[in-house]
From TrEMBL:
This is Extracellular solute-binding protein family 1. Belongs to the bacterial solute-binding protein 1 family. Pfam families: SBP_bac_8 (PF13416). Residues 1-27 form the signal peptide. SUPFAM superfamilies: Periplasmic binding protein-like II. The keyword Chaperone does not apply. GO terms for cellular component: periplasmic space. It is found in: Periplasm. It comes from the Bacteria. Its main location: periplasm. It comes from Desulfocurvibacter africanus subsp. africanus str. Walvis Bay. CDD domains: PBP2_UgpB.
Amino acid sequence: MFGLAKAIKCFLLSLLAICCLSGAAFAKQTELVFYFPVSVGGPITKIIEGMTTEFMKQHPDIKVTPVYAGIYRDTLTKALTALRGGEPPHVAVLLSTDMFTLIDENAVIPYDDILSPAEMSFTKNFFPGFMSNSQTGGKTWGIPFQRSTIVMYWNKEAFKAAGLDPNTPPKTWAELVSFGKKLTKKDASGQVTQWGVAIPSTGYAYWLFQALAIQNGAELMNQEGTKVFFDQPKAVEALQFLVDLAFKHEVSPKGTIDWATTPRDFFERRTAIMWTTTGNLTNVRTNAKFDFGVGMLPANTRPGSPTGGGNFYIFKKTTPEQRKAAVTFVQWMTTADRAAQWGIDTGYVAVRPDAWQTKQMKEYVKGFPYAAVARDQLEYGVAELSTHDNQRVTKALDDAIQAAVNGSKKPADALKDAQKEAERILRRYNK
């Protein structure tokens, strides 16, 4: 009897010890709230859920709770609102162009303040073109994750029906117009049933316009994010070309073209060519019921596209443990293998060169060469428009673009007004 009692006592003490150890381990678990923007097609949410679940399996001491906050602009607004309310996210994927805004709001902490100089060497793994929107003042504020460029998609069946070589897209602005005229179709009543080209002018109008400006030899801002050059002649010519596609050449719809519905118009054969993010690549591959092509944007005086997409930022209102956990999460999410798989699953550009040397990426590109178009276009890439108070500055430019394509202002007048508004917004950063 005594032996049984002793055995029970030992068992209970062991159980208590296990519970204490488990409780201690649980108590030490670092919790991270992770804001993520859902703004393009494809099963992005499920992919992120799978990645965070796998991360937590490998790092049981860290709990990550994803919060899906809408498009990038909404995600930034919600993050800053939460910051002012005292409960910001610990880590978030926000636009690379939000860097100056986040710094000005004292919202984020540079990675250099968390890691040693030796540990910061991991930032050299990423494409320099993506790091240009991630660093300023000698510090790294963002780590590239879902990055992109704008690419051109075309319907090969429509090209063939129009007597065009389905494997040869337009390579210049002049060819874009001439191809667009052949691709635009009308019914017996004269109504257009298929447009030649669609370049969105809502959602990310400034981004698409910047591509045209780059192709015409215009840079829209300085590296410090304190000055813009919206009304320079080459930029005006670029906006005039966008307007002329609709009103002069009649190869594109008049008025604004919606960012969100342009892929659907492409799938439903209402446009034969579209410009949109490479982040829509998997969406197009899944939903286009016809053979399609993907290529670099056509050039005028030069080829080019702005880079785009989101970086990982770590918020300042965090404990040292949360910051370390956030860095661990960011580094895990951006390894070569995961960057490769993320690119395969979504269409975004794998953000580091060694990701393109992984077995899965080599096999993917071999079977689907279009996946490498955006990577190759990085040779001609330019940092996306980014300034202090970026939301207000880009809104001024968006408004100008929409006024021009709607016909309510001439391109020169619209961009002059945008320049004046941007200079007013940026005045305090130029003292």
